[in-house]
Amino acid sequence: MTEFVSTQLQGGVAYLTLTRPQALNALSLDMIRAMTEALTRWEADPAVHAVVVAGAGGKAFCAGGDIRWFHKAYHEGDPLLDQFFVEEYALNYLIHRYGKPYIALMDGVVMGGGMGISQGARLRVVTDRTKMAMPETNIGLFPDVGGGWFLARTPGRIGEYLGLTGVVIGAADALYAKLADAYLPSNVLAELVASLQARTFGSGDAVLAHVAGYTAGHAGACVPSESRLAQQAGSIDTMFGLDTVGGILDAVSDAPGDWAAQTAAMLRSRSPLMLCVTLEQVRRARSMSLADELRMELDMMHDVFRHGDGVEGIRALAIDKDHQPRWNPGRLDEVTPGRVRAFFDTKWREEAHPLAALGHAGRG
């Protein structure tokens, strides 16, 4: 294991913990490789019946990929920048198709790459501290790590809303959007883990039943707030079901109320190009298998640093921190259909695609 990933096997359960709290457990390539190695080994180990993944430090499960490293690697021409996404997406696929129960304790910040290592879990537990988002359009990227696939499978047009705005949601909204399965107060998570470690399990189903019983039966397990997404579902479906980003922005801008005003402001601050790319991504992903969608994302990511707004977005947010990105183009009406389509052109022959091993076209 790396210094930022720890593992433990006890009572038939393997525990995988991200231990980079000073960076909100952001993923490095070494961490992705360590997780892939551990999960592959455990899947073949008859002594392991289930896996529990968590983040150390009390503030974050995982805040995503290490975007500062992305910026550095781009400017240094480091070939590992492309390799990072190849291996990250392969890990995401492994988790979605994992042969044993994989349980994600999504306490604190769960964004970007953190969603990639949790959305494929058999059981996704959120807390009162959960801050969930796919905020990529804010840094000139698109919701990757399978984001197009799992956002497209949320109710109604919530996927378009979350993907375009990058808005941060809490536990109630995550449960409503079917991006989480169960809720526990954050101060009870340690009790849950202790209760798991105090037992020996003979099957993955027994582990799942124990966690489900704990979340259902524990006092305070009811979500403490109402879902705002549920309250705005009608407006989201109407506005974010429109054909173009321009149409969506016009509709939101014309709508009354604080929610509409805040949503319009978020959209106006995002990369116009990546808003259009993201809308196309989510719409395409609705009819795609996970494997095909991840291959599509790798095609898209190949362009995002070379011809998109990724480098500039990361500079403005995380490097210079001036929060004044110079998007190219700067206006929605300057984004051409051809430039959007170019993100979806594959760069490899089918058999030579770096993610060809994930499965055959049209299948999982």
Automatic annotation (TrEMBL):
Gene3D superfamilies: 2-enoyl-CoA Hydratase, Chain A, domain 1 (3.90.226.10). Residues 14-344 form the Enoyl-CoA hydratase/isomerase domain. One of its GO terms (biological process) is L-valine catabolic process. The keyword Transcription regulation does not apply. One of its GO terms (molecular function) is 3-hydroxyisobutyryl-CoA hydrolase activity. It comes from the Bacteria. SUPFAM superfamilies: ClpP/crotonase (SSF52096). Keywords: Hydrolase. It holds the Pfam family ECH_2. The keyword Repeat does not apply. InterPro entries: ClpP/crotonase-like_dom_sf, ECH_dom, HIBYL-CoA-H. Signal peptide: none annotated. NCBIfam families: PRK05617.1. This is Enoyl-CoA hydratase. It comes from Cupriavidus agavae. The lineage of its organism: Bacteria, Pseudomonadati, Pseudomonadota, Betaproteobacteria, Burkholderiales.
